Recover the amino acids of this structure.
C-alpha cells in the first residue's frame, strides 16, 4: 500500500468501518439528523439524546463507504457529553482538518486520523457527511442535509 | 484527418492494437506512480492525436462563424461543419444529412425530443414506455414532459442481477396507449446489449414512436438507423473519441419535419418579424445559435478514425476483454457480478462483499487504475437490485489483456486490504 492510502485508511478507520460503534437506533433520542450524499448514495441518520444543551448519548444508522462509516462511528463516540456549542466548534475544526490536512490543536483528539482525507478530494464529502448530520441535529434543524454544496 | 469521403469499414483487416494505442498521447503516463490503466471509457473515452490535431488545425486556419459570413473563413468553417454532418449521416446510414441535428450530447438530444416532439404529441392518458435500465438522461426529461402533458410513465422490467430486459412483459406493456418507447442500446451499468431492431419492430406495428439511446453503442458497434428501424437515435461525441460538448440527434425526416422548434434564436429562422417568425426546416430549425463548430469537426475526425479501424473489430475487441475480465472476476470469492453472463458489451460491473464501491475505486486509483464507482446515473435500477452503487471497469479498443490482468491483481489486493 502506498503512503497516501495508509493515511486515508488508517488502522483506526479500518477498525471502525469493520466494527462501527454505536451503530443502532437510540432509545429516548430526542434529536436526529440525516445526511445524504447523492453522488455515492451514502446515507446516515445520527440520533442524539440531549438534555438541555448537552449531548447525553449518540448513535447512528445507515450505510455507505468505509470512510463515511468510520467517521460516523468516531463521531458518535466523540460528541457524547459535549454541549451544543462544543459540537459546533468541533465541527469547524474537523471540517478545517479534513479539507486542509492541518490539525489545528489537540481538540480533535482521535479524530486526527481523518486528516489524511484532504489528499482525496472526492472523499472529503464521505468523511464530513455525518458531521453535517450531527450539526443539524444539535441545532434542531429538520430534514435531511446533503453534502451537495460541500466544496471539494 | 478530415476527409469528405467515408472511409469504409474494414472488418477483416488485421488490426495492430498496440499501434492504435500509441495514437492516444494521454495513455502514456504514470498515475500515483503506476502506469495509467484507463478503464472508465463508458463515462468518456480518450482522444486520438488525429482528433486533437483536427481541432488545432481548425482554430489555427479556418475559425469563423458558420452560415453567416460570406467571407473566406466563414465559408471554410461552414463547409467543414456541414461536411461533419454528412459524415455523421454516413456513420449511422441516415438517408440524408438533413436528418442529423447537432446537440450538446445524448442528454440534450433526449431533452430536445421530449420537449419538441413530446409537447406536441403527448396527451393526458398517453403512456411513455421506458425500461428499468435507462440512464437518468432517458428518464428525467420524460418525467418533465409527462408532468406538463399529463402523460404517464411505464417501465419494462429488468430481470435482476443478470440485467436483461424482461421481454415476456413486453406485450402487456407495449399497448396502444403507448405513444413513445425509449430505450438504451447498451446499458452503461450492466453491459447488456438490447435487441433494438426487434423492439422497434414491435413498436412500429402499433404505431409507437421509438427513441434509441446509443450513447454506449455508437462508437463500439456498427449502427444503421434504417436497419434498426427507430424514429430517433441519440449519442455523444465524447464517448467515441470525439470532443466534449457535441452530440447527435438523428430523426426520421418526416418526424423531424412535423416537429416544432426546440430553442429559438439565430440560425434557425427564415424570417423574423416583431411578432411572428418562420422557421427553417430540419436540421437547422433545431440548431438555434452558434453551434459547436470545432466540436463537429473533431467528431468528424473521430468517426474517420473509428471507421478506419472498423467498428466490427472494435466491438469484438471490447467484448473479448469484457468476457475475459468477467471470467477472471468470477474466480474471486466474495464478489457479486452484474449484467449478462454471455454476449456482454465492453464493461463489467461488480461489488465486493463488505467493501463499498467508492473504497474500491479509491484504492484502484492509487494503483493507477481508473474505475468508476457509484450509481452510474442509474439510481432506479440500483434501487431495484437492492444496492446503491457498483464498481465498473469499461473498456475500449486501446485497452489490453495485460491491463485486465493488472486490474484483477489490484482487485485481489483490495480484498486483502479490507480483510474480506
Ligand atoms: C446510456 C447512456 N445514456 C446517456 C448518457 C448521457 O450522455 P451525456 O452525458 O454525454 O449526455 C450516458 C453517459 O453517461 C449513457 O451511458
Amino acid at each position: 500500500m502506498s503512503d497516501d492510502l495508509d493515511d486515508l485508511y488508517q488502522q483506526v478507520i479500518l477498525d471502525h468501518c469493520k466494527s462501527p460503534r454505536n451503530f443502532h437506533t437510540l432509545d429516548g433520542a430526542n434529536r436526529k439528523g440525516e445526511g445524504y450524499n447523492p453522488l455515492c448514495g451514502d446515507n446516515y441518520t445520527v440520533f442524539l439524546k440531549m438534555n438541555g444543551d448537552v449531548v447525553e448519548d449518540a448513535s447512528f444508522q445507515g450505510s455507505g463507504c468505509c470512510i463515511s462509516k468510520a467517521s460516523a462511528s468516531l463521531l458518535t463516540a466523540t460528541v457524547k457529553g459535549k454541549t451544543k456549542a462544543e459540537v459546533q466548534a468541533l465541527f469547524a475544526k474537523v471540517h478545517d482538518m479534513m479539507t486542509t490536512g492541518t490539525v489545528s490543536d489537540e481538540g480533535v483528539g482521535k479524530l486526527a486520523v481523518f486528516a489524511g482525507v484532504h489528499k482525496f478530494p472526492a472523499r472529503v464529502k464521505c468523511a464530513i457527511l455525518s458531521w453535517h448530520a450531527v450539526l443539524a441535529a444539535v441545532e434542531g434543524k429538520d430534514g435531511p442535509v446533503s453534502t451537495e454544496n460541500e466544496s471539494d | 484527418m478530415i476527409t469528405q469521403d467515408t472511409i469504409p469499414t474494414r472488418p477483416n483487416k488485421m488490426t495492430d492494437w498496440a499501434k492504435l494505442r500509441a495514437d492516444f498521447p494521454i495513455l502514456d503516463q504514470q498515475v500515483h506512480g503506476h502506469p495509467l490503466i484507463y478503464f472508465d471509457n463508458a463515462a468518456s473515452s480518450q482522444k486520438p492525436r488525429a482528433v486533437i490535431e483536427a481541432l488545432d488545425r481548425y482554430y489555427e486556419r479556418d475559425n469563423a462563424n458558420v452560415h453567416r459570413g460570406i467571407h473566406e473563413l466563414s465559408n471554410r468553417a461552414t463547409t467543414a461543419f456541414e461536411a461533419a454532418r454528412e459524415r455523421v449521416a454516413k456513420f449511422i446510414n441516415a438517408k440524408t444529412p438533413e436528418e442529423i441535428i447537432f446537440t450538446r450530447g445524448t442528454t440534450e438530444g433526449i431533452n430536445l425530443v421530449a420537449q419538441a416532439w413530446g409537447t406536441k404529441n403527448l396527451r393526458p392518458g398517453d403512456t411513455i414506455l421506458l425500461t428499468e435500465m435507462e440512464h437518468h438522461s432517458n428518464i428525467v426529461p420524460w418525467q418533465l414532459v409527462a408532468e406538463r402533458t399529463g402523460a404517464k410513465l411505464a417501465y419494462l422490467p429488468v430481470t435482476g442481477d443478470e440485467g436483461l430486459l424482461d421481454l415476456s412483459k413486453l406485450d402487456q406493456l407495449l399497448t396502444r396507449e403507448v405513444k413513445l418507447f425509449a430505450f438504451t442500446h447498451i446499458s452503461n451499468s450492466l453491459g447488456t446489449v438490447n435487441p433494438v431492431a426487434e423492439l422497434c419492430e414491435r413498436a412500429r406495428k402499433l404505431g409507437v414512436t421509438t427513441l434509441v439511446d446509443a450513447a454506449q453503442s455508437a462508437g463500439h458497434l456498427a449502427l444503421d438507423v434504417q436497419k434498426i428501424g427507430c424514429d430517433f437515435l441519440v449519442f455523444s461525441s465524447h464517448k467515441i473519441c470525439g470532443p466534449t460538448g457535441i452530440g447527435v440527434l438523428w430523426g426520421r425526416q418526416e418526424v423531424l419535419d412535423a416537429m416544432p422548434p426546440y430553442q429559438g434564436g439565430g440560425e434557425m429562422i427564415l424570417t423574423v418579424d416583431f411578432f411572428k417568425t418562420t422557421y427553417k426546416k430540419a436540421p437547422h430549425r433545431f440548431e438555434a445559435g452558434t453551434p459547436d463548430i470545432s466540436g463537429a469537426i473533431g467528431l468528424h475526425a473521430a468517426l474517420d478514425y473509428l471507421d478506419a479501424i472498423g467498428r466490427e473489430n472494435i466491438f469484438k475487441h471490447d467484448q473479448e476483454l469484457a468476457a475475459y475480465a468477467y471470467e477472471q472476476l468470477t474466480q474471486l470469492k466474495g464478489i457479486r457480478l452484474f449484467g449478462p453472463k454471455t454476449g456482454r458489451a465492453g464493461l463489467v460491473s461488480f461489488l465486493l462483499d463488505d467493501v463499498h464501491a467508492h473504497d474500491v475505486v479509491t484504492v484502484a486509483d492509487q494503483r493507477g487504475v481508473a474505475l468508476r464507482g457509484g450509481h452510474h446515473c442509474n439510481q432506479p435500477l440500483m434501487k431495484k437490485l437492492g444496492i446503491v452503487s457498483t464498481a465498473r471497469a469499461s473498456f475500449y479498443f486501446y485497452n489490453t489483456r495485460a491491463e485486465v490482468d493488472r486490474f484483477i491483481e489490484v482487485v485481489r489486493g483490495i480484498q486483502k486490504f479490507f480483510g474480506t
